[in-house]
Amino acid sequence: MPFEALFSISFWGYLAVALLLTHVTIASVTIFLHRHQAHNALDLNPVVSHFFRFWLWLTTGTVTREWVAVHRKHHACCETEQDPHSPRVKGILCVLFGGLWLYRREARNLETLDRFGLGTPNDWLERNLYGRHPWLGILSMLIVDGLLFGLPGLAIFAVQMIWIPFWAAGVINGLGHYLGYRGFETADASRNIVPWGIIVGGEELHNNHHAYAASARLSCRRWEIDIGWLYIRLLAAFRLARVKRLAPRAVSTRGCHLIDSDTVRAVVSQRFYILKRYGQIVIRPALREARRNTDEMGRRLIQRARDLLTREDISPDHEAKETIARVLQQDQTLATIYHFKQQLKEVWSRSTAGQPGRVERLQAWCAASEQSGIRALEEFAQFLRGYRLQPA
């Protein structure tokens, strides 16, 4: 060993140190950069906020304004040519293994910084140290790791340098739009990679985040675990954080017939979940029934149309539109159900004239659904009639 380290511990000790340090970095990214800075979902005590900023400078060289601007542009331009890191546009391998390069390239775009980087720290330290000399932080971390642990410290430093580029820039931005389950039928291709957001602080729950970007909590179901949210709750308990926004939660009460502004408010705020549920309990059973009542050629056609009829993240090209038209022409029940889906989406469309207009549209939609003669559609209308937001 070229110099005497301050600490000499076992292999498992070094591994534990590496995991602890990278976990603090993950917590800094998800709490400070993502939920606090990019989406303003919570306020942080200035001391806590500065600790996260300082730690990210040491372990990643991240400039807050750059990270926030790139992320906000991702949301604003998701799955388009302007999206900084869409695997649908750039390819999964490019994003998975080249996510850091894609981020660096977009962070140099002054137009992106000017448009999407507003509201980020701009104090003396940011202008003269963190933002001006990002690599000085990484160099400082290298020296500290080496002094504390010697050669094993260099391995710990390497893990720190790889962790965020791989997990955040690669896995979340790549696999988070490519592989996993969707609890909400958003217009983008976002996915929840695993139900338990442990490795990257809850960021695996990416589809949940795209459904409710301004929510401080990324978990939406009881079996989903958001470690970042647990840390936020802990900070809030000590009055070091204040939650500003959470994803709304709703419940449907049986036997409720009145559709009012509260019903519409719940349906509109939960529209991505409503579309997901409509696909699950109305469209997919109809698809299965249609498959049973047709020949082999018809079954293949229905199979090709399944995702086109249920997914919102697919923009159908000319061939896909022809496939949809052929399937709907082949089965009248499917045609009716698909038509009702398009009408339901008009309830929350911008063309609807205010809240009274939305109430009238939802009332008309439920009444027509209940007279359609399609049992699944009738039951879905009853489900919507009883839909209400739960108290925060």
Describe the structure.
This protein is mostly helical. It has 2 domains: 11-243, no CATH class; 252-389, no CATH class. The protein is built from 18 helices and 6 strands. The chain has a two-stranded antiparallel ribbon. Strands 2-3 form a two-stranded parallel sheet. Helix 3 (64-76) packs across helix 6. The chain starts with 10 loop residues before the first helix and ends with a strand.
Task: Describe the protein's topology.
Layout: H1 11-38, E1 42-44, H2 46-59, H3 64-76, H4 87-90, H5 92-107, H6 110-116, H7 124-130, H8 134-149, H9 151-174, E2 196-197, H10 206-211, E3 225-226, H11 227-237, E4 241-243, E5 250-252, H12 261-269, H13 271-292, H14 296-310, H15 318-330, H16 332-345, H17 354-370, H18 375-385, E6 387-389
Parallel strand pairs: 2-3
Antiparallel strand pairs: 1-4, 5-6
Helix pairs in contact: 1-2, 1-3, 1-9, 2-8, 3-6, 5-9, 8-9, 12-17, 13-14, 13-16, 14-15, 15-16, 17-18
Distance between the first and last residues' Cα: 57 Å
Major beta sheet summary: 2 strands, antiparallel
Fraction of helical residues: 55-70%
The whole-angstrom Rg is 25 Å
The poorly predicted ranges are: none
Structural class: mainly alpha
User: How much is the average pLDDT?
Assistant: 94
Name the shape in a single word: elongated
Strand order, biggest sheet? Answer: 1-4
Order of helices and strands: HEHHHHHHHHEHEHEEHHHHHHHE
How much of the sequence lies in strands comes to under 5%
**Number of E-state strands:** 6
What is the total number of structural domains?
2
Number of helices: 18
